[in-house]
Specification:
With 214 residues, the protein is an alpha/beta fold. It is built from six helices and six strands, in the order E-E-E-H-H-H-E-H-E-H-E-H. The strands form two sheets. It has a three-stranded antiparallel β-sheet, with no helix packed on it. Strands 5-4-6 form a three-stranded parallel β-sheet, with helices on both faces. The protein binds zinc ion. The site of zinc ion has 9 residues, from loops.
């Protein structure tokens, strides 16, 4: 049995409400509510994501005494860009999810492709915006190459995370979250509920596999 759920979301602040409101009680904006149909598949369907059930504990964290936890053990992955390392607090933390935001055309894709090509580790660069050829051309303009940099054009979260689980990259780059769509949600890519769901799936994946995601 599938469960269909409808919610109203504020386009301005993202607050959800079971019914439509003319004025958002959270941010005060007018006519900002849009209806979004949220579809969640039957519970068993989630197991289709093969990255979930391949581990002994299903990738789930186990309780551990705070005295057994070793601090300072986290090995940050330094990127080739000293400024980016500084912003990240010294490098990429394994299992972290980092959102790179900025206006269109500001150079987010170029920055991240540069990171992918200079990383010195296996990187999976997933693009929902450009073709493989376009990415290759941009890499050539940067005059860089990395045989450990893999390109995937995919927008379905389950399929892309399955590829990431198989490839086991040291870094997963996704360009961009607005193009992703989760099979568990019916609304269009880029909508509030879709971005929220996709970000949640990416965060769970990063935590369970320790693969950092940009
Ligand atoms: Zn609002």
């Amino acid at each position: 049995m599938s469960k269909v759920k409808k919610v109203f979301l504020c386009n301005n602040c993202g607050v959800s409400s079971p019914k439509w409101m003319g004025r958002c009680t959270s941010c005060g904006s007018w006519n900002s509510f849009v209806e979004e149909v949220i579809f969640r598949g039957p519970p068993g369907e989630e197991k289709q994501a093969s990255w979930r059930d391949s581990d002994q504990h299903g990738g789930q964290a186990q309780p551990i005494s705070i005295e057994e936890i070793q601090s300072g053990q986290t090995q940050r992955v330094a990127t080739s860009d000293p400024e980016l390392n500084r912003v990240l607090g010294g490098g990429i933390v394994p299992g972290s999810l980092v959102l790179i935001g900025g206006q269109p055309g500001i150079g987010k894709s170029t920055l991240l492709l540069q990171v992918a090509l200079d990383a010195g580790i296996r990187v999976l660069y997933v693009s929902g915006e450009e073709s493989e050829e376009q990415i290759k051309m941009r890499a050539e303009r940067l005059s860089r190459s990395n045989s450990q940099c893999f390109i995937l054009t995919e927008t379905n979260t389950t399929r892309l995370l399955n590829h990431a689980k198989k490839l086991e990259p040291g870094l997963l780059i996704i360009d961009s979250i607005q193009t992703l769509s989760s099979p568990y949600i019916e609304s269009t890519p880029g909508s509030i509920s879709q971005v929220r769901e996709c970000a949640g799936e990416l965060q769970r994946f990063a935590k369970e596999t320790h693969i950092p995601i940009f």
